[in-house]
Amino acid sequence: MPNPNTQTNTNRMTEIEQRLAAIRTEMDAPDTDLDALNTEADNLIAERKTLLDKAEQRRQLLGKIGSGEVGREARRFPLVEPTPEQREYTYESPEYRTAWLHTLMRCDLTDVEQRAWSTATGSAGPAIPTQTANQILEKVTQYAPLLGQITLLRVPGNVTFAVEGDEPDAAYHTENAAITATETGLTEITLSAYEIVKLVQISKSVQKMAIDAFESWLTDMIAKKLAKQISATILTGSGTSQGKGIDKANTWGATNSVTVAKDTALTTQNVLDLIALLPGGYDAGATFLMSKKTLFTDFMPLQDKSKNDLVRIEGGSYYIYGYPVMLDERVADHEAYLANLSTVIGNMPEDVTITSDFDLTKNAFLFLGSAMFDCEPSRADAVRKLVKATA
Fold it and tell me: Which pairing describes strands 286-290 and 323-327: parallel, antiparallel, or unpaired?
């Protein structure tokens, strides 16, 4: 339907043009009032300009409408969070974490926690929340610093690990003589998964604890005990139904250890002899392992600033002839190891698991922490020992 305003403007433009043409004729007449015609012409020209400007605006507007810039309604929709029923929960979800901890505490779950528990667990059953698992592993590593020194794998199930052995040297070749291939020098180490467990008990008052406080207490208790056993395995594990520790890396004798007589004190020469037994290739990562008592009763008395710098203390850390010292009470008194611990291969095939039960006879909760771990020294010559004779 035509716009009536547009038609009116067109008619008016025609009238203006016709009147301006008439003024051009009238201005030549002898009795014409030129001042009046001049004023009228100025007004008509101004009105014509106004109408032309409006016509140009309409033309530009029509161009925008044709390109889609005008006339399209910009609609903004608010972001709508999915309802709890629509959300997908995982082991990393905060709702699953609180549901898992409240389930251990035998507390009632909220509606959101129940949905997180049912959707995240699935057919595989409940698993430890990611945040809690990371917290336990962090604390286990903190309480078992030896874990940070060995080569630790996280491979599910049994794993076979190939390590480089003694590679035969190159040899001169006689022209036209046959060349025989030598062994590759790789040694295979197979690690399985031995279960390490710790059972802790707390009264029913656990249900009154704040969720974060309960998680901190539980992970700390479990981590400390598991870490203690893991450290003991790395040091003295027998290798039978458990990991093999560095104490079983060799059958100790004159070629791989230094023995101090039963009634004789450690000497500086004993320490130097022990260091000399370790091949130079392992020096960069070598560490002394001993108890605090051994450090202060056997090694510290050897310090003589006028003759040597056997023991050095820097920032609370101890060094013996430049080798860092790790203190661990599981090492027998008056004995020590000098070892490159990176040659010890360990495996934790799965995260620590925690299950709970309620003991009616004690009105207390029981929490069982379980870890899988195995380890084995891969290079016997990377471990040397200071032995104290017993006879």
Answer: parallel
Residue 134, phi then psi, degrees to nearest 5:
-65, -35
The two beta strands, 286-290 and 336-340, are antiparallel
Cα radius of gyration rounded to whole Å, the chain: 44
Residue 367 · residue 202 · CB < 8 Å: yes
Cβ-contact 139, 145 below 8 angstroms: no
**Is there a contact between 276 and 386 (Cβ–Cβ < 8 Å)?**
no
pLDDT for 367-390, tens place per residue? 999 999 999 999 999 999 999 998
Nearest to 143 by CA among 352, 359, 334: 352
Q: How far apart are CA 89 and CA 355, in angstroms?
A: 21
Q: Which residues sit opposite 161 in a β-bridge?
A: 189
| Residues 257, 386 contacting (CB under 8 angstroms) | yes
pLDDT digits (tens, 9 = 90+) for 98-115: 999 998 888 889 999 998
3-state DSSP assignment of residue 78: coil
d(CA 223, CA 217): 10
What is the spatial distance between Cα 59 and Cα 50, in angstroms, rounded to a whole number? 14
Confidence of residue 188 (pLDDT cuts 50, 70, 90): confident
Structure tokens at 84: 């709890």
Q: What is the mean pLDDT of residues 125-135?
A: 85
Return d(Cα 87, Cα 165) in angstroms, integer: 53
Alpha carbon of 168 to those of 150, 184, 309, 380: distances in Å? 26, 8, 38, 17
pLDDT digits (tens, 9 = 90+) for 307-358: 778 999 998 899 999 999 999 999 999 999 999 999 999 999 888 888 888 8
Q: How far apart, in whole angstroms, are the C-alpha atoms of residue 196 and residue 112? A: 34
Encoded tokens for 12: 């008016």
- Residue 287 makes CB contacts below 8 A (sequence gap 6+) with 149, 323, 324, 325, 326, 338, 339, 340, 341
φ/ψ of 172, rounded to 5, equals -70, 150
3-state secondary structure of 201: strand
pLDDT band at 240 (very low <50, low <70, confident <90, very high): very high
Query: How far is CA 201 from each of CA 59, 204, 254, 352, 365, rounded to the nearest angstrom?
Result: 85, 10, 48, 18, 6
Judge whether residue 74 has pLDDT over 50. no
